[in-house]
Amino acid sequence: MHHDASPWSEIMKWNGWGYSDSKFLFNKKGQAEFTGKRYRLSGMVLPSLQDWFENTFGASVNHKSPPALNASAVPPASLNEAFVEDLKATGIPFSHEAEDRVFRAHGHCLHEIFALREGKKFERVPDMVVWPNCHSDVVKIVELACKHNVCLIPYGGGTSVTSALECPPEETRCIVSLDTSQMNRILWIDEKNLVAHVEAGIIGQDLERLLNESGYCTGHEPDSMEFSSLGGWVATRASGMKKNVYGNIEDLVIHIKVVTPRGVIEKSCQGPRMSTGPDIHHFILGSEGTLGVVTEVTMKIRPIPEYQKYGSVVFPNFEAGVACLREVAKQRCAPASIRLMDNEQFQFGHALKPQVSSIFTNFVEGLKKFYITKFKGFDPHQLVVATLLFEGDRERVLQHEKQVYDIAATFGGLAAGEDNGQRGYILTFVIAYLRDLGMDYYVVAESFETSVPWDRVLDLCRNVKERINRECKERGVQFQPLTSCRVTQTYDAGACVYFYFAFNYRGLADPVHTYERVEHAAREEILANGGSLSHHHGVGKLRKEWMKESISSLGVGMLQSVKDYVDPDNIFGNRNLL
Amino acid sequence: SVSSSFPFSLLSISSRKQRKNTIRDGFEDILEERRNSSDLKYALRCYAPVLYKGVTPCKANMLKNIVLQSDQLRYVINQVSQESGEAPDIIQEEASVILEEMAHRLQISTVRFFAFALSKAFKTLFQHVCVNEEGIQRLQQAIQEHPVVLLPSHRSYMDFLLMSYILYTYDLALPVIAAGMDFMGMKFVGEMLRMSGAFFIRRSFGGDKLYWAVFSEYVKTMLRNGFAPIEFFLEGTRSRTCKSLTPKLGLLNIVIEPFFKGEVFDVNLVPISISYERILEESLYARELLGVPKPKESTSGLLKARRILSEDYGSIHVYFGQPVSVRSLAQGKVNRSTYNLFPRHIPRKPMEETQSFVNDTAYRIVRLQEDNMVLKPWVLMASLLLQNLEGMELSVLTEQTVWLRGLALSYAAFLDWPDHAPTAKVVSSSLALHRGLACVSGGRVSLVVGEPLGPVTPEEALFNRAVSVLSCASYRNQVLHVFLRPAMLAVAMLHLSDEVYNCFSFLWDMFSNDFILCPGDTVQDFEEACYLLVKTGAVQMPQQDIVMTDIGQPTLSFFNGLLEPFLQGYQVVCRYLCEEASEGLTEKQYIPAVRSFHSVLCVFTGNLRCYEVLSSDMQKNALAALLRMDAVRKVKVADQVTLIVNKMAVNSIDDILGKNRMISHINQTQISPSLSLVAVAEDLCRDGLTPSYIR
């Protein structure tokens, strides 16, 4: 009975991103390749990556910083015996094996992964892991936790990047990680209303696959969808790449069932909109595991689109690209997804060009031809690329495509082909693997995001990048950092901007600390430039300090009073958000 | 010994960080090359400066279009149109006319013309034009990284041509310069200046929304895009007294706002100190201060003034200070996110937090300008001569100048004392250069007083005497920023009542229009004063006391004498307001009235010590101080502003300033309005002597 009930931890890396079989490495010939079979890049050799890597970071493939394996430096479990006894009686599986506990002690923040790789000891990890199988199991666990004053931390896909899964070091009670992975069924599909009732532990890619079997999809595709869970999306107010067609998680959710220390929160009906005071769903959405466990969700589904088409547009510079996206948003004709990568990301995409490729037409070669022949004015160190994804019936897609390309043309944009578009989206999934490669060679990297009104997008991007460069310099980073951003979502009144930031840390005593100070400064710059604290990653413990500034102390007080009512004994004691 | 109520525990903590780093760059003479190579070649050489982030320079017409089409201006145009009922097109046209009147039309050919002409002129007028090249290098770096605002001190019309000349010489981007509209009176010259980068702003446009919008958007557009460094004078106008003037905040607000709104990452402010050994406008200023109106800028006036060309004006030192990052200054002082909830293109009054930041910044920059002003030996000599108006033995002057030099150096003055020259030589060559101001006869040095032809009335004699004192004072004033704080402490110790800190604080407050005293810095300045006096051994500070040492007497009495004219001047104003001012005294009448009160006082009592109160500058500053201290109020009646005097309050201020200092009380009946200095000044004007006062 005391075993890891999930095969998950066997196929997943314990100290890096994603699947164990998929990773970037430099082979004996010094060429980069991506292993495994899961992705379109898998098994391919990427000849330009090494040059890009060495030139961008001043890193060298000869300077390796391989991980030091030390999975067992784990503090001993401090168990609440009475709780364990009562739990045994319920028959719900649990474990206090070190591996199981460490696996659930972290998300994917740089400092967490770095610590794992360095074999550093975690100050506090969960004392045990429990695997409820259904809603009523969760009710039992929460009741027992209240009875024995045990701290519960819900765990879904483990892709948090806000330190939300970290155990508060000051927590003296027994900490139980409540792993929802076994609650992964679609309970029913209602085709009349186009909704599905799903257990909240289901992982994004499984949900899509299972719905696809019935001819449906949710259309909710956050970049982490391979590994993140439905409950996690609700708890963090997740956003999907195709939100322009399907909406963000708050638009998709029809009903949420949550188990709290005070009991179960549910609504009495599934009306599509209600005027019954403030929407209680909005206390749950974004609550980051501080109020209870989301167990079941009723969400909208859509028939699988008949036709999908990728596309891309090249602009002479970032300003023109942003102006185009703004116009597209103004005309409310955004495709399912539209993203604008800056020049640094364009170059990075360039570097991931596979050696032999029938799938990717040769992006760069094609582009070079472009400009040498017809479009000379484009400076390769200025140009940016927007990637597009259209969905719907074929005719509509083609019409829509024309509309968007016409708008792009008025901003000097040139259509740059389907493959380049598709490539951009594949990058999204493999980029997280690339961080692990960087860490093998003294490069640390992280991403962060914000949302910002349209008129401030350019100023914010420029100032944040400059702030990062300046902070790195002041903090003794000896190599020029990589700072790159992209506009990933458009709204009527603004956009979501996503930043990548990486630097070569050779010569730094405490790279993680340096990194954290720089990210802190970058976040301050974001807030000073009219950006939000977060668009979809959430607050966790990483950004708690800015909550008052963001939503006013009265606002924090309102949230606190809900917490105090729902969970007076702080059973859900991960200390996120407030 | 005097007790102090000041908490001295504080003092010991912060005096450690008291003195800023005073290592300064060396100078290069840029005229040297001009004397050895062709001016024409120089004017025609290749000029290709690097701009901010490598932007391409913007044509004047394109710039105008950007401004006219900006959201900011469009918003105000619509607003004005709605308020006035005029069609937006008409308002837009008005805006376009304003812009046309304002905008610069920088042309390289004009710049080359000036490069040539100024080379010739400078070589005739000046011995050296010295520039700190390290400062130039810092500036060059700054221009590439951030939008740059050049903030020179302003003592002469020469300043801005000189600035552009230097930047051209070093192949740096030429600035666009905010100039007063009055230059446009000089038909041809105005246009020439415009083509060398000047843009023109009206002196007052208080409530004119449209004007303000065009103006601020014009400046911000240049700044945001980094098309050119912006140059303006924080002091707003040329200082006629050679003391730095209280900074004006309008333009500074405009150039700082883009940073707060996130439109630029940072803005660099570069304080520049331009020091003239002899100011071209020297005696012109003195006369202006005495009420002879400033000659209107005119091309013919300029041509008449060309006789200046036959004189030796010594050297000029231009010191480019360390660029000051607005971002670093604002760190922790202004919360930029308060700008997040309001559209950035809608004009809004700056928030209190911002206002006080801009005010602090302005003072800070002016103090940086002061710090790097180069002082010549003559400045020290003038300070001594003014304390000995009856004249001094040359040997005594020489001896005291050497003593004062030591004092100035230990207070970190930026003194340009010739190397390896015997002191007597230094003194005599200073006297030679300033022979219009002081002369040696029979081994005694005294001020030169102009002797008009024909019979001299007592008032004319007084006027001439005052011109020479005020001219001389403009040199003494250059050193005041070095000695000001310890001097106020010395006055507090020697003259004023029991509590030293309170007295210091009173003087500090009283004089804050006359000198650059950063708001809120009273305690810090007091600490600095104590530190400096202790450092030079003039005082000791056992426990809670401040005590003069055995050797402190000369220092303290010199300091006391240094501030004496100011103390006296303020007292005269107080006296006038208490004893003489009529009920309905208007603001306009105030200056001539004080002047005539005092001149009568001088002529009739024969006490000829305090000439400086005849200066309108001091009178204005004294009134401003009394207004600030609520001893005088302004009341607007019809379209006149009347001054209401609280005689009790003014009297008590007079008391604190020290009753015994003042000359004896005079008989009211002796005052006759016809015998006023104003009348003398007016007579002189009528005689058509105005523009040719320059000796």
From TrEMBL, chain A:
It is found in: Peroxisome membrane. One of its GO terms (biological process) is ether lipid biosynthetic process. One of its GO terms (cellular component) is peroxisomal membrane. One of its GO terms (molecular function) is alkylglycerone-phosphate synthase activity. Keywords: Acetylation, FAD, Flavoprotein, Lipid biosynthesis, Lipid metabolism, Membrane, Peroxisome, Phosphoprotein, Transferase, Transit peptide. Its cofactor is FAD. The keyword Transit peptide applies. Its main location: membrane. Its EC number is 2.5.1.26. Pathway: Lipid metabolism; Glycerolipid metabolism; ether lipid biosynthesis. Residues 122-304 form the FAD-binding PCMH-type domain. Substrate binds at residue 435. It catalyses: 1-hexadecanoylglycerone 3-phosphate + a long-chain fatty acid = a 1-acylglycerone 3-phosphate + hexadecanoate; a long chain fatty alcohol + a 1-acylglycerone 3-phosphate = a 1-O-alkylglycerone 3-phosphate + a long-chain fatty acid + H(+); hexadecan-1-ol + 1-hexadecanoylglycerone 3-phosphate = 1-O-hexadecylglycerone 3-phosphate + hexadecanoate + H(+). It comes from the Eukaryota. Pfam families: FAD-oxidase_C, FAD_binding_4. The active site is at residue 498. The record marks 339 as: Important for enzyme activity. FAD binds at residues 154-160, 236-239, 288-294. It is an enzyme of class 2 (transferase). Homodimer. Catalyzes the exchange of the acyl chain in acyl-dihydroxyacetonephosphate (acyl-DHAP) for a long chain fatty alcohol, yielding the first ether linked intermediate, i.e. alkyl-dihydroxyacetonephosphate (alkyl-DHAP), in the pathway of ether lipid biosynthesis. Belongs to the FAD-binding oxidoreductase/transferase type 4 family. This is Alkylglycerone-phosphate synthase. It comes from Oncorhynchus mykiss.
UniProtKB/TrEMBL annotation, chain B:
Coiled coil: none annotated. GO terms for cellular component: mitochondrial membrane; peroxisomal membrane. It is found in: Membrane. Residues 148-277 form the Phospholipid/glycerol acyltransferase domain. InterPro entries: GPAT/DHAPAT, GPAT/DHAPAT_C, GPAT/DHAPAT_LPLAT, Plipid/glycerol_acylTrfase. Keywords: Acyltransferase, Membrane, Transferase. One of its GO terms (biological process) is triglyceride biosynthetic process. Its main location: membrane. GO terms for molecular function: glycerol-3-phosphate O-acyltransferase activity; glycerone-phosphate O-acyltransferase activity. It comes from the Eukaryota. Pathway: Phospholipid metabolism. It holds the Pfam family GPAT_C. Belongs to the GPAT/DAPAT family. This is Glyceronephosphate O-acyltransferase. It comes from Oncorhynchus mykiss.
